[in-house]
Amino acid sequence: MAAEALRLLVVSTPVGTLGSGKGGGVELTLASLVAGLLERGHGLTVLAASGSRLPAGCERARLWTCPGVDQPSWQHQRRDAPVQIPVNALLPRLWQRAVAEQAGFDALINLAYDWLPFWLTPQLATPLLHLVSMGSVAEATDAVIAEVARWDQRRLAFHTLTQAKDFQLPEPPVVVGNGFDLRAYAFCAAPEPLLGWVGRIAPEKGLEDAARAAALLGRRLAVWGLVEDPAYAAAVEASVSAGTIDWRGFLPTAQLQAELGRCAALLNTPKWNEAYGNVVVEAMACGVPVVAYRRGGPGELVQPGVNGQLVPPDDVPALAAAVAGAEALDRRGCRTWVERSCSRAAFAERLERWLLAALGR
Ligand code: HBI
Q: What's the rounded Cα separation, in Å, for the pair 261 and 23?
């Protein structure tokens, strides 16, 4: 239990409503951050887009919402793109409310990857902290994150060391990993001879490499995820023999984990500096070992010989060759590693340590 209960305002991503899945990994991070800190006795208020629903486990948090137009995703803009504020935008409304209410909180926590909240940091009386959700994807956010780091780097936390290395930081970074409600993931001891791949189906996720590796092995590849780029999905389907890919669609966690657990191994093929790699931990939580590129967060989460294997980035033959070694691993060891490192309780403890240090307590 925490030494003293903090009153915390968590401001969500302006890309989609909580519960829509459009916020990507941030939704899972927010759920674990809020539920974990509630468990430790803190008071939580969540500020998000109208239509948002509090995730399971966060019922004791207060929910405030604002209407407005989503922010364009930084993942789909050029690195040198200017910051855009749409007409009737959600982002400034969220922060207008946060600024107006700041006196009622001990700290504000921002989960958005947007210029405005980082820029506001030195201007607020109540300490504003940021859990940065991505690696470097835009010069505008790189620059403002570097400014906050120069001003007071204690205000920043990252999911992994690899992600933090993308940014100019005067001090070693605070790395908090992520947290998962492991009751939601069932361990599967006896898999099918099936390979798996989970993620938004878009070029930066590298599905084409996993499909080619499965084809090289003559194995089926089950694919779960939102088809964000239909043309890309069709091109991947056409790149391997019919029947190699078994498209399973975007499933809520309960259904996803029930199917994912039956895989003999998960292939993880990011083409960008994935900040963390939630799907890698979700697979391991079900006992599924992971073969991943040595890149981004997954390159830090996979412990070779314990919960999976790592191969040189973009090396498809190496990806295929590593599958047998991963499938030979003890599946219970994958689950145990997640229980030790990625539970909501472990995540909340790391978050609380970050908060108290940033508040100078
Ligand atoms: N883009 N502008 C913007 N703001 C965000 O908060 C944001 C984003 N793109 C993706 C994203 N957040 C989340 O899906 C991260 O989990 C990747």
A: 24
CA of 71 to the centre of ligand 1 (A): 9
- Let me know if residue 2 belongs to a domain: no
**Which regions in the chain score pLDDT beneath 70?**
1-3, 21
Given the CA of residue 22, which atom of ligand 1 is nearest to it? Answer: 14
Distance from the alpha carbon of residue 191 to the mean position of ligand 1, in angstroms = 34
Which CATH number characterizes residue 155's domain?
A: 3.40.50.2000
- Say what the pLDDT of residue 348 is: 98
Query: Which sign does the torsion angle of CA 51, 110, 14, 162 carry?
Result: negative
| Cα-to-chain-centroid distance, residue 357 | 23
**Domain span holding position 308:** 182-341
Task: Give the pLDDT score at 242.
Answer: 95
Residues with CB under 6 A from ligand 1: 13-15, 23-26, 71, 73-75, 112-114, 133-134
Strands (DSSP E) along 133-252, which ranges?
A: 156-157, 195-198, 221-224, 245-249
